[in-house]
Amino acid sequence: MAQIDIRAVRKSYGKTQTLHGVDLIFPTGEFVVILGPSGCGKSTLLRMIAGLEEITAGEIAIGGTVVNKLEPRERGCAMVFQNYALYPHMSVADNIGYALKVSGVPKAERRRRVEETAAIVGLTDYLDRRPAALSGGQRQRVAMGRAMIREPKVFLFDEPLSNLDAKLRVSMRAEIRKLHQRLNATSVFVTHDQVEAMTLADRLVVMNKGRVEQVGQPLDIYHRPASTFVAAFIGSPAMNLIDSRVEGGAVRLGSAVIPLAPAFAGLEGRTVTVGIRPEQVRLAAPGTGLVAIADFVEELGAGRVVHAVMEGQPFAAAIGAEVRIAPGQPIAFDLPAEHLHLFDRETGRRIEIDGEPAQSRAAAATLAPALS
Amino acid sequence: MEKRSVFKSTWLPILFAAPQLLLILLFFYWPVTAVLNWAFTLEPPFGGAAEFVGLDNFKEVFNDQLYWHSVMISIIFAICGPLTAIFIGLVLALAVDRELPGSGFFRFLYILPFAVAGPAGGMAFRFILSPERGLAAMLNEIQPDLWNPAKYGSHALAFVIIIFIWKWAGYTFIFLLAGLQSVPRSLIEAAAMDGSGPIRRAIDIQVPLLAPTLFFLLVTMMTEGFVGSDTFGMVHATTRGGPNHATELMVYRIVDEAFQGLNYSGASAQSLVLIGLIMIFTFIQFRFVERRVHYK
Ligand SMILES: Nc1ncnc2c1ncn2[C@@H]1O[C@H](COP(=O)(O)OP(=O)(O)OP(=O)(O)O)[C@@H](O)[C@H]1O
Ligand SMILES: [Mg+2]
Question: Could you say which residues of chain B have pLDDT below 50?
Fold first, then answer.
């Protein structure tokens, strides 16, 4: 049983604090992904779990044992590094088997287990090679083999795929997921790639500037981002965030006025940030809804994204490949109320009432007659 | 292909190279020719043209019992001194590389002896290891003559080897520390995750990756041990080859013979033998050690 408990963990380098009190629980066997922009402290947190970085304050427990003072080897974690960190002077077999050698496993058994592991990661034919004679993907596999041969309770990955090309990344992603199912260890995976995060995670932790912004299932986070940071960070193209104000039970976005559900009456007069994802914006009949001026169009093959400007603020919308839009042309957008997100402009936190998002109330209100 | 710039004129490059060429001619090729000349000729004691004597000078050198003794102790010196200096430099570098508190101060301290010239170091050690005073005196109180380099040849040889180690450990330390710091941190961390402690990591990961540096140091330190001017200086400032020729290293003997005994011919012949010896050792190192050094 290797649940990881992170309690009020802080990290400072000298005077600068890089983690400001992180509280997290990673249940046994879960695949947790830590996502955040560069420099937010993801690696630092991971390395503190591994024992490679001292814990300035707070407590980390693995399987119920506080590990603050334990050496890396006493923690039962294995780690896959971003640059793989393979031992350049050892063959693939020796790289994979090094942990067993250190712990004094007899040669014959070591050999058997190395071969077994190599078969799982598909390296049987490369056991005698040096890392320098392997491709990036193969090196990645060696690193994974080396980590899994010890049958660790906890698997740590620090951006293990970021040195691979796009195609290989997709296939390695699938392999890592399969590996996780097979080993059933608690996995913590650090990345700044949201696609990786969304596809791999059972539980997603979004971090920003040394703080945890939101924890939850990937889809939950996508549908109900807890802050404007998460809203903008998750999803591509990024969510539109527009400053507005609640007036007369509605929010005004440029020329569009969108009424809110009655439950939001208490927000009257508050300054808010309204969010809507580009893929949930629809084209409207000219002259209705929100009108913006097209700036440029991004071709994605399957569809395209039009980047427009509405009263000085950028506004993006995903549109079908069949629509032709020229830069400078005014476009009318329809913003479905059920897809709106409301955030407090001051704190950036999501505004929810009774745990329900604003727009689903609105949606429920409109759907209710139809259902009854 | 890298693009090269080519000088059109012939004179400009020669002009650029001239100072260096001049220095090499003056201080290397000229003395070497002189040595070659002396080694095969004999200067008449009362002037006149030198007389060609073929291999007579070498025969005389090889027939001297003391010469073979000198070769023996030179080999002992050039093996024990460098190996120990490298080993100590390695241990210190591994310790400093761990960046424990205070490592900056020790880094400075370890490099310091290198800045001291060999003869000066020798003088210092004459006092430090003198049998009548300090540390060695305490030893001698346990049993008389437990340490007396003035009396025992083996003690005297150990004495000059210690000075060599003291001086060169700092030098090897710099190279090894630089080598260690170019070993990616993540390799050490990966080994730590694999359950390897600091000493095991040093043996399994750091030292193998330092092999090229170690090899370089082995070659340069052994050459230094055989012919280094500091090696001469150390002996000269301390034992002066004694007692009873026990520390008469080849390089000391050559200088002594040439400038004290004024026997240029004998000294030149010995120099050529010494050069031959260094070539043999370097060849052995490249042939058998370098192959096992892992460069990439
Ligand atoms: N040894 C150190 N000394 C001082 N500051 C450090 C040190 N290591 C990391 N930091 C700082 O801590 C912060 C977090 O670093 P960390 O490596 O955890 O970022 P990250 O989220 O992993 O970023 P990336 O995605 O670029 O890897 C950064 O601002 C960094 O500058
Ligand atoms: Mg990082």
Answer: 296
- pLDDT one-digit tens code per residue, A247-294: 888 888 888 888 887 777 788 888 899 999 999 988 888 777 888 888
User: Does residue A350 lie in a domain region?
Assistant: yes
Ligand 1 centroid distance, CA of B107 (Å): 27
Q: Is the dihedral of CA B287, B290, B292, B296 positive or negative?
A: negative
Contacts of A192 (CB under 8 A, 6+ apart): A35, A36, A37, A38, A42, A159, A162
* Residue located nearest, by CA, to atom 22 of ligand 1: A43
CA–CA dist B230, B117 (Å, integer) = 7
State whether residue B194 sits within 8 Å of chain A by CB.
Answer: yes
How many whole angstroms separate alpha carbon A111 and alpha carbon A97? 8
Structural domain includes residue A331: yes
Q: How many domains, chain A?
A: 1
Residue A221 lies in a domain: no
Structural domains in chain B plus CATH codes: 64-292 (1.10.3720.10)
Q: Per residue in A121-163, pLDDT tens?
A: 888 889 999 998 898 888 988 998 999 898 888 999 999 888 8
User: Is residue A142 a part of any domain in this protein?
Assistant: no
Tokens for A275? 């969010």
- Distance of CA B32 to CAs A36, B29, B39, B52, Å? 68, 5, 10, 17
**ipTM greater than 0.85, yes or no?**
no
Distance A138 CA to ligand 2 centre (A): 22
Count the neighbouring beta carbons within 10 Å of the beta carbon of residue B244. Answer: 13
Q: Is A327 in contact with A342 (CB distance < 8 Å)? A: no
A149-185 residues labelled b (16+ CB within 10 A) or e (exposed): bbebbbbbbbbbbeebeeeebeebbebbbebbeebeb
Interchain CB distance below 8 Å, A102 and B186: no
Residue-number span of the structural domain to which A278 is assigned: 230-371
Looking from the CA of A212 toward its CB, the CA atoms found within 13 Å total 19
Q: Check residue A356 and give its pLDDT.
A: 52
Tokens linked to B243:
């007692």
Q: pLDDT tens digits, residue range B226-240?
A: 888 788 888 888 888
Q: Which of A300, A299, A310, A302 is nearest to A332 (CA)?
A: A310
CATH number of A343's domain: 2.40.50.140
Residue A288, phi then psi, degrees to nearest 5: -105, 170
What residue ranges in B209-257 does DSSP mark as E strands?
none
Query: How far is Cα B168 from Cα B162, in angstroms, rounded to an integer?
Result: 10
Considering every ligand atom, which ligand is closest to the CA of A14?
A: 1
pLDDT tens digits for range B94-107: 988 887 777 788 88
Give the global pTM. Answer: 0.79
